[in-house]
Design brief:
Isoleucyl-tRNA Synthetase, domain 2; binds zinc ion; 7-stranded mixed β-sheet; 25 helices; binds ligand ANZ; 38% helix; 4-stranded parallel β-sheet; globular; 726 residues; Rossmann fold; alpha+beta
């Protein structure tokens, strides 16, 4: 009897299928574990990163099933998005056909990997039923004022005729066609994530010790809460006149009110209304106006890469406390989208302001004691600060805010780096945003009974323009409110919207899917996800959006859950020859070929053995061979198992070798709970099993063999020895 993984695995996979072995029970009173690996985009084939992700989740799911938990371990498809449209452009395939045929192929791949996923809960986010419930949430968010439509500045590529995300702008050009990107005012839909900023920040403390600290820090910084003072600079009379009486004052935000007496200039963003006015009314030197326009055309990301650059605007403001005149500049480091889009500059105590002041010979005034050199950014007592001199600067922050408030000159303010989430995409392959534009009624949500607003199948996808916009009839509709001719919104939702609530969809019993997107009892039972597993690249976007959506849906009454993912494991990348496996580098290993040659057990065992899951995994062919040999040996020795229960063993009658084998087997067993429940260091557990097997081989007591094999099987969770399943 030789080890034939093909035969063994096919047999067990069929049996699991027949028994529906991995479906959770409908009972909501049993103890439960919800184990979730991030769902894949149906790109066409699985890659090793997927295999790693699912091997980890699978091991945990199997472990908890054996501990008598009701286990939810689902899989589905993150199926909307650009690549489907690119396939249409390149290969003339319809995005829907491309997506669903990729799903069919990849589902088979998952099957041959023998992963213990629930079959009944699988879905694709492009399924109309999923869209229907999502559109309902979106309308409810609109009704709560959480979703709004607004015109703002976006990155626009004229040749591709679409909006680009900041990440899709490279050196000021479109990543796809290399055309220079313009900033353009365009209407779009936004979700008010800032309304939840404080809760998103505070609840991070619940995740401390359960999520990687790096991810928590990244989210904290991304939300970027700062407290400080907002106040107005009043323009001098002369400057007001120069600005045609259109402006009296403008707002600045500072986190360092304690340095207010050290202000020597103020700077406006290049797209600040005052800067714009000066440029548009030819009140600046033409060369300067051109330079300012050039900066205004760069994205914020691009600007951050440039040297500090700025120009005097020929206007002045009055210092709110000293009455001094302060010159106003425009500078490339002032962001239009933050605070009031303007700053008070204190070169003595701020690096950026110092660099700028030195470059342009602006005065520098120290107002905090301490440090030898300027800029000095540490703490200390105030000097040259009128009534606040001698006060410690931390105290002075509060005192100055209070004073400004009493005098009616400013107020303590909280600002966030976090921007509201722009969810509009001018794309075909996404969930339509379910609104109608009516001349009479304005922006009107579609009626619930008309959902989903489904995509038309007959579209032409050329890569130019929005196919929904260009479709001859789709956008013409009746106003849901007054019934007159109206126009359907042609923007579709960002695909991150779909991945923000899929964890609730899986939790909802499929029998209820037709009716509800989220069933409350099911959601409250299954959520939060006990263990979430995925790549670190999702540290901010997906993981923040999903936390936000969870809170919003809770407030809409769909469930009582505060945090979607109780514990998070970020798996390391799979490398080969030191580089991340990728098609473009040509260093990929094809999972199908691996399974074909060695079997799924070897593939998964190797992945778990080669490195701790959180660390990078370097591909190693001989280690794959090693994993195969170990499983083969385990299989060969399974013939030594003589009974169906653990034998009683008389310790005294054993040889030294047999005793040692028992020690090794029990050591492995002892490790296993810690590994499955806490450290996930599967590599050490597998190593312990290998040692136990070696020690067993050095003795010949039949009972010790039986016991040892049972213990190894428990440690390896049966996922690697399907033949002992029964
Ligand atoms: C004066 C000052 C003195 C500042 C000093 C810092 C140190 P965070 O922590 O990021 O909130 N700032 C305000 N609005 C800005 C904008 N639109 N674009 C660029 N910079 C802006 O930083 C707030 C600080 O960043 C503010 O405090 C302001 O500079 C600057 F010794 O005011 B500070
Ligand atoms: Zn109407």
């Amino acid at each position: 009897m030789s080890y034939n993984p093909k035969e063994i695995e096919a047999k067990w996979q069929q049996q699991w299928e027949a028994e529906q072995a991995f479906e959770p029970s409908d009972s909501l009173s049993q103890k439960k574990k919800y184990i979730l690996s991030m769902f894949p985009f149906p790109s066409g084939r699985l890659h090793m990163g997927h295999v790693r992700n699912y091997a980890i989740g699978d091991a945990l799911a199997r472990y908890y099933r054996k501990q008598d938990y009701n286990v939810l371990h689902p899989i589905g498809w993150d199926a909307f998005g650009m690549p489907a449209e690119n396939a249409a452009i390149k290969h003339g395939r319809h995005p829907k056909e491309w997506t669903y045929s990729n799903i069919d192929y990849m589902r088979k791949e998952l099957g041959t990997l023998g992963l213990s996923f629930s079959k009944t809960r699988e879905f694709a986010t492009c399924d109309p039923l999923y869209t229907k419930h999502e559109q309902k949430f979106i309308i409810e968010m609109f009704q709560k004022g959480l979703l709004y439509r607004e015109s703002t500045t976006v990155n626009w590529c004229e040749s591709c005729h679409t909006v680009l995300a900041n990440e899709q702008v490279e050196e000021g050009c479109c990543w796809r066609c290399d055309n220079p990107v313009e900033l353009k005012e365009m209407p779009g839909y936004y979700l008010d994530i800032i309304r939840y900023a404080d809760e998103l920040l505070e609840d991070l403390s619940q995740l401390e010790g359960k999520w990687p600290s790096q991810v928590i820090t990244m989210q904290r910084n991304w939300i970027g809460k700062s407290q400080g003072l907002a106040f107005d600079f009043e323009l001098t009379e002369e400057s007001k006149a120069k600005l045609g009486g259109k402006f009296d004052r403008y707002e600045v935000f500072t986190t360092r009110p304690d340095t207010i007496y050290g202000v020597t200039y103020s700077a406006l963003a290049p797209e600040h209304p005052i800067t714009k006015y000066l440029v548009e009314h030819n009140l600046l030197e033409p060369e300067v106006a051109e330079k300012i326009k050039a900066i205004a055309n760069m994205s914020e990301v691009e600007r951050a890469k440039q040297d500090k650059e700025g120009y005097p605007l020929g206007i002045n403001v009055i210092h709110p406390l000293t009455g001094e005149q302060i010159p106003v500049w425009t500078a490339n480091f002032v962001l239009a989208s933050y605070g009031g889009g303007a700053v008070m500059a204190v070169p003595a105590h701020d690096e950026r302001d110092y660099e700028f002041a030195t470059k342009y010979n602006l005065p520098i005034k120290r107002v905090i004691e301490g440090g030898e050199e300027l800029p000095y950014t540490g703490s200390g007592r105030l000097i040259e600060s009128d009534r606040f001199s001698c006060v410690e600067n931390e105290e002075a922050k509060i005192a100055i805010i209070n004073y400004m408030e009493e005098e009616g000159k400013g107020q303590g303010t909280t600002n966030y780096k976090l921007r509201n989430w722009g969810v509009s995409r001018q794309r075909y392959w996404g969930a339509p945003i379910p609104f109608v534009h009516c001349d009479e009624c304005g922006l009107v949500p579609e009626k619930f009974e008309n959902l989903p607003v489904a995509l038309p199948d007959d579209v032409e996808i050329t890569g130019e323009g929005n196919p929904l916009e260009n479709h001859p009839t789709w956008k013409h509709c009746k106003c849901p409110k007054c019934g007159k001719e109206a126009l359907r919104e042609t923007d579709t939702l960002d695909t991150f919207v779909q991945s923000s609530w899929y964890q609730f969809r899986y939790a909802t019993n499929p029998k209820k899917w037709e009716e509800v997107g989220i069933d409350k009892a099911d959601a409250d039972y299954w959520l939060g996800v006990d263990q979430y597993i995925g790549g670190i690249e999702h540290a901010i976007l997906h993981l923040l959006y999903a936390r936000f959506f969870t809170k919003v849906l809770r407030d809409l009454g769909y469930h009582d859950i505060d945090e979607p993912f109780q514990r998070l494991l970020t798996q390391g990348m799979v490398l080969k020859d030191g580089a991340k496996m990728s098609k473009s580098k040509g260093n990929t290993v094809d999972p199908d070929a691996l399974v074909d040659k060695y079997g799924a057990d070897t593939a998964r065992l190797f992945i778990l053995f080669a490195a701790p899951p959180q660390k990078e995994l370097e591909w190693n062919d001989s280690a794959v061979d090693g994993a195969f040999r170990f499983i083969k040996k385990l299989y060969d020795r399974s013939g030594k198992v003589t009974g169906k229960t653990l034998p009683e063993i008389d310790q005294n009658s054993l040889s030294k070798e047999s005793k040692l084998a028992r020690v090794k087997a029990y050591e492995a067993l002892q490790k296993s709970a810690d590994v499955y429940e806490y450290t996930f260091a599967f590599n050490t557990l597998i190593a312990a099993c290998m040692e136990a097997l070696n020690a067993l081989d050095k003795q010949d007591n039949a009972d010790v063999w039986t016991e040892g094999m049972y213990l190894c099987s428990t440690c390896l969770n049966r996922s690697f020895r399907m033949w002992l399943q029964s």
